[in-house]
User: What shape does this take?
Amino acid sequence: MKFFKLFKNFRNDEEGAVTVDWVVLTAAVVGLGAAALTMVRGQTQALTGKISGYLSTASVNSTF
Assistant: This one.
């Protein structure tokens, strides 16, 4: 009988449930951010290489 009363109290107690929800939500947002960063990082490095190549061959006129 004591076990059922303990289980009923545990089931009805909602203290801390909001904290667990926020932790799960925050972990999901961080995971999505990391996934987006991984996808964008490769393309950014390729674009940086193209810009560097263009700027290294560009000439600057110092006269007007």
User: Anything to note?
Assistant: The CA atoms of residues 45 and 51 lie 10 Å apart. The radius of gyration is 28 Å. The mean pLDDT is 86.
